[in-house]
Amino acid sequence: EYALELVKRGAPVSGVLTKEGVTLAAVEILQTSLEDRRFSKKLFEFDTHVAAVIAGNSPDARVLVREARYSCQGHRMTYDEPIGIESLVSGIGDVLQQYTQNAGVRPFGVSMIVAGVDASGPRLITTDPSGSYRGYKAAALGVNSEKGREILEKKYKENITLEEAITLSIEALKAAYTNSLKPENVNAAIIPIETKSFKKLTEEEVKEHF
Predict the structure, then answer these.
(1) What's the pTM value of the predicted model, to 2 decimals?
(2) Lowest CB count within 10 Å: 71, 90, 114, 175, which one?
């Protein structure tokens, strides 16, 4: 319950699946004007073809991000190919589950939206602190996530383009974030099916979708 509360209090994050690829977006509030917004605490690239946004406890997330990157690197070294998205998420789920069962450790207070493109096409999968995971066409996590999901359910369509999905991802953040959201407080990324490569949007590109 404590772990789930951390997730529910986390800054809003979202993701949208399309036939052209996947999008991820996260609210990032800078503590000072001196912070470098290029350093994200919510949006992480695991490998060129897969990334995630996190809601919840950032230190916990860093442990899982490290594990995910090790899994990606290990798979490439062993099989000379990128890891499948569901296979990666299953491994993350195993780590999460271990911390719910062993005495002396607490569950991770973090959930993820993992997005990527593998041999089966674009994928969007969420995890929770229990280790369970589920695939989605669009997802929102963090504070007021139900408001973000309402926007996603209302505006998602099967033939949505990648450009439209970026806008929808940001709209979900706006709905969940109680204050007026500014472009400089949003980090977003895409992984197009054409390139299968992670691309973080610039602040100017984010502004175009506000």
Answers:
(1) 0.93
(2) 90
